[in-house]
Amino acid sequence: MRSLADSTPPIALGALDGRYRAAVAPLVDHLSEAALNRQRVNVEVEWLIHLTTAGAVPGVRTLTDAETAALRDIPAQFDTADVAELADIERETVHDVKAVEYYLKRRLPQIVGADDAVGLSELVHFGCTSEDINNLSYALMVQGATRQVWLPRAKALVDQIAAMAKELADVPLLAHTHGQPATPTTMGKELAVLAHRLRRQLRRIEGAEYLGKINGATGTYGAHVEAVPDTDWIETSRTFVESLGLQWNPLTTQIESHDWQAELYSDIARFNAILHNLATDVWTYISMGYFAQSRGQGTVGSSTMPHKVNPIRFENAEANLEVSNGLLDVLGRTLVTSRLQRDLTDSSMQRNIGTAYGHSLLAIDNVGRGLSGLDAVPAAMAADLDANWEVLGEPIQSAMRALGAQGVPGMEQPYERLKELTRGRRITEADLRDFVKGLGLPAEVEERFLALTPATYVGLAPQLVRYLDA
């Protein structure tokens, strides 16, 4: 067979950059290798500007507004040509962050003039270890990916689920606990539970902290203090990190500790797990006939059975959520540890952040598409309710308990009497009504239970949906 490895254009190895590229493409601006290099350039530019503006190194002139704008234009205009140039430099340096330093130094003479560039170029990457640049870059990347891509998509999906919950708030549904018929609810209330859970995780994710540091080789500002002892380097560091829109971490080794990343990924993984729960529940409701999948969309449900419309969106979502959570779990577990003051396990690990986000985003997309193709089938839900009159044993025995506690005679052993009537067998409407009539209930209570049906035994389920807006 011919090799595909040398095809032009290159063939993607993974599904996210191949089959599913369209659904995850916005993440490329934030979590790709090119995005990492662009943020490195951005952080190096901002550090140079900060050092001159803050007067951290005496005798160095402040950059003009035009020079500052020109410097900031470098990351703003960063494109594939810059990616290629950095790759060329890295082949010589065999060091990715050092390549960024040299890349910027090449551009300084055109911005500040050849004479000034000689001195100012020495402030590019001044006092920094690679991790000073990398930790800030990753914090900005993850912040951007979360706030600008993942959160808007996740919120839109949860709003879609909430809208379905409100639409179906009054549609009665036979519940199933342990796979067995149980106290009825409504389809809307069950969807509202999931939307409520998902929104709680979104609030946690919205409140995530993004930490950063810039304090030298082992977090001591050692080189900074020895080079320029009169500068308040702690304050210079704090104001710089905060100027990037990040929270300053005052105590680190050579690396920022990544605890904030583990916390964020845990919350996203929990969102994923709840969404997985929704996908499996909706899949089950489809298999029970409670939802019909829209037809006439030009899709092939089965390659051999023309009648089928498979719930592939939800199955696809399940798989992608599991892949995402596997990656998020290993990211959270490994990023919080480092041998003594530094090892490089986090460097390789963080390159998988985009993949973890990508599979989650793909799942969100699939669930949204899947829900859009559903129509509720109240008749199917009603048929199951009408076939399970035994679920009314619960409210009857509960009423008998209350009456017995109030001193009404003849209400002894309510649980046992309903158990004898209902356990292990189906009963009909007539069976139940005959039983109720023979209990000796007060007239108004008997009347209420003679009117009760499985479809009307939904308690406060419709009203509970209102709590989605609380």
UniProtKB/TrEMBL annotation:
Query: NCBIfam families given for it?
Result: PRK09285.1, purB
Instruction: Using the record's annotation, list all stretches that form the Adenylosuccinate lyase PurB C-terminal domain.
Output: 338-458
Its keywords, alphabetically, are:
Lyase, Purine biosynthesis
Q: Which reaction does it catalyse?
A: (2S)-2-[5-amino-1-(5-phospho-beta-D-ribosyl)imidazole-4-carboxamido]succinate = 5-amino-1-(5-phospho-beta-D-ribosyl)imidazole-4-carboxamide + fumarate; N(6)-(1,2-dicarboxyethyl)-AMP = fumarate + AMP
Tell me the route in metabolism or biology where this protein functions: Purine metabolism; AMP biosynthesis via de novo pathway; AMP from IMP: step 2/2; Purine metabolism; IMP biosynthesis via de novo pathway; 5-amino-1-(5-phospho-D-ribosyl)imidazole-4-carboxamide from 5-amino-1-(5-phospho-D-ribosyl)imidazole-4-carboxylate: step 2/2
Spell out the PROSITE patterns in the cross-references: FUMARATE_LYASES
InterPro entries attached here? Fumarase/histidase_N, Fumarate_lyase_CS, Fumarate_lyase_fam, Fumarate_lyase_N, L-Aspartase-like, Pur_lyase, PurB_bact, PurB_C
**Encoding gene, per UniProt annotation:** purB
From which source organism is this entry? Flexivirga aerilata
User: In its UniProt entry, what is this protein called?
Assistant: Adenylosuccinate lyase
**Which Pfam families does UniProt cross-reference here?**
ASL_C, Lyase_1
Q: What does this gene product do? A: Catalyzes two reactions in de novo purine nucleotide biosynthesis. Catalyzes the breakdown of 5-aminoimidazole- (N-succinylocarboxamide) ribotide (SAICAR or 2-[5-amino-1-(5-phospho-beta-D-ribosyl)imidazole-4-carboxamido]succinate) to 5-aminoimidazole-4-carboxamide ribotide (AICAR or 5-amino-1-(5-phospho-beta-D-ribosyl)imidazole-4-carboxamide) and fumarate, and of adenylosuccinate (ADS or N(6)-(1,2-dicarboxyethyl)-AMP) to adenosine monophosphate (AMP) and fumarate.
Recorded GO molecular functions are: N6-(1,2-dicarboxyethyl)AMP AMP-lyase (fumarate-forming) activity
Q: Which family does it belong to?
A: Belongs to the lyase 1 family. Adenylosuccinate lyase subfamily.
